[in-house]
Specification:
Layout lengths: L14 E2 L3 E6 L6 E11 L2 E6 L8 E6 L7 E11 L4 E8 L4 H6 L1
Antiparallel strand pairs: 1-3, 2-3, 2-5, 3-4, 4-7, 5-6, 6-7
Length: 105
């Protein structure tokens, strides 16, 4: 669903979905977070909570736990520290839109 409201900067409506995932840094494949999870999804990407230090513009791989062994490449679009939980919130964008079905079933 495309959101066309002028006061909303998001391109897509997001839906709250919590799915346990594993995140892997493409540039450093041994840096992973098996305790990461989604916080919301939209047709082109996903919001995640992770312990990994992510940088805007870097590539990560997303693997849904228990769903598939297939990794989904995603670009880190935004990053925000959550001081209360000592974690990172990040927005990831998929370039293959069919990947979302692999993640949330």
């Amino acid at each position: 669903m495309h959101d066309n409201t002028s006061d909303n900067r998001r391109r897509w409506v997001r839906q709250k979905v919590t799915v346990p995932i594993c995140l892997l840094l493409e540039a450093a494949p041994f840096h992973t977070d098996d305790s990461a999870f989604t916080v919301d999804v939209c047709p082109r990407g996903v919001g995640v909570r992770t312990k990994l230090v992510l940088v805007r513009g870097e590539w990560v791989k997303v693997v849904a736990k228990g769903k598939s062994l297939r990794s989904i490449p995603a670009l880190v679009i935004w990053v925000q520290k959550d001081e209360s939980s000592h974690s990172i919130l990040a927005g990831l964008e998929f370039y293959e839109t069919r990947c979302l079905r692999c993640l949330i079933g």
